Amino acid sequence: MDKTQRRISLAEYVGELSTFLGRSVRQHLTVIPLGTLAAMLVTFFLSQTVPATYSARASVRLARLDGQDLMTPQATAAHMNMRTFLTRALGTAGPADGSNQRDRSLILDSFNARPNTSDSLILVLIATSEQQALNALGATVQQLNKDQEKLRSPLLSELEAQLALADSNVASLTRIRESLATSDSIMPSTTGDAAALALRRVWLLDLMARNEEKLAAANAELRALATRKGSTKTYPASLSEDVLIAQVSPQPVRHALFAGAIALLALLLYAMIRLPRSARVD
Fold first, then answer.
1. Does the structure show a pLDDT above 60 at 191?
2. 123 neighbors 137 (Cβ within 8 angstroms)
3. What CA–CA distances, in Å, run from 137 to 102, 180, 216, 249, 260?
4. pLDDT of residue 159
5. Once rounded to an integer, what is the mean pLDDT over residues 120-144?
6. How far is CA 26 from CA 33, 110, 228, 279, in A?
7. Number of other CB atoms surrounding residue 271 within 10 Å
8. Which of 8, 55, 162, 222 has the fewest CB atoms within 10 Å, i.e. is most exposed?
């Protein structure tokens, strides 16, 4: 028995396949283009009946106190992705007002928060209008600040107490400086021993120098505390102004092209399967 097998080159295989495909298409030359066109037209008109939806993407700067994050980006993202958090946020803000349950569920199901940088998050959601998307993003950030107030309040109170104490210390040292600088304290009205008067002046000058040192240190501490509480070190979470909103549906042209490609492939396979046996043998 001859067990030798004839090897078929790639070019020959592709040529035979092309010939077979051409025969299949010729047998259904009318059905394939008409079927593809029909699928595209039906998909185009059906896609236009789909309600409009918009995808929104925004960056959120995370809250800080004294230059430190209240929560890490990973923990904040996990907190915001909780269903209970989103329910509280949307239940007290504009997106739920005047909209049906489908609009609300669309936001809840599509919302996603993920870490972006060491001090920011990326928020993504889908809504039925641009304004609804903006309202939903703002509501989530507002709810985040409310939830973080439990962490922020005691730390901020402690910082404010330190600031008030430093301010009181500066005021006290300032009054002492003004008192020491009066002419009566340097040159008392009652005359006495010249040596005693000289010693008194030396003593007062020494007190004034020490007071100035303490006052300078107190002012430096006050400025440092004010900086720690300032807008560059302490601020709540905020939504960036660069919110990207794009319409994701309906997109009838894209859907029609996709449906046409699927229909064309299906019709070609059908034509190849339905090709008469005699044509295949030829």
1. no
2. yes
3. 18, 59, 47, 20, 37
4. 87
5. 93
6. 11, 47, 80, 11
7. 19
8. 8
Tokens of 110: 């599509």
Strand partners of residue 245: 56
Mean pLDDT of 59-78: 92
Q: What is the pTM of this model?
A: 0.64
Amino acid of residue 34: L
- 63 C-beta neighbours (distance < 10 Å), count: 22
Q: Residue 117 is inside which H or E element, if any?
A: strand 112-117
166 vs 190, more confident: 166
Which residue type sits at 261?
A: A
Rounded-to-integer distance, Cα 12 and Cα 195, Å: 123
User: At residue 254, what is the residue type?
Assistant: R
How far, rounded to the nearest angstrom, does the alpha carbon of residue 56 sit from its chain's CA centroid? 10
Which is more confident, 261 or 200?
261
Task: Compute the CA torsion angle 269, 270, 272, 277 (nearest 10 deg).
Answer: 150
